[in-house]
Design a protein that fits this description.
By secondary structure, this protein is α+β, with helices and mostly antiparallel strands. About 25% of the residues lie in helices and about 35% in strands. It has 2 helices and 6 strands; from the N terminus they run H-H-E-E-E-E-E-E.
Amino acid sequence: MKPIMKIKMTLLWILGPMILLLGCASTKTSKFNSMSVPMGMDKKEVLAKFGSPYKSGYYKDTNQVFREDWYYKENFYIHGWVDVINIIHFENGKVVSLEPLPEKQPYLIEANREVEVKTREKKP
């Protein structure tokens, strides 16, 4: 085999798998979905599966039903870094719903470094 052909084959064997792996790197999906957080799951199970939420809140509604919300944040790279907030709603200690908040893009990549983007709301 010619030396140039040997080099090309070696590069193909090295770069081929790397390209395939990098192509799959940005296809991450949320770990919070109706299969992983089914209705009726209790707080202990959620805590064991996902760990502590970064924020939580609770209240009693007008029917004296105890309600609690746990907030979990995930980061994805989809044409830039994106934050997704997932809120798990509990009623009397059991999951009643899962609410993903709209995605926001808090970071831009600028000259090989991340910069936080702060937006200002316009006043009418």
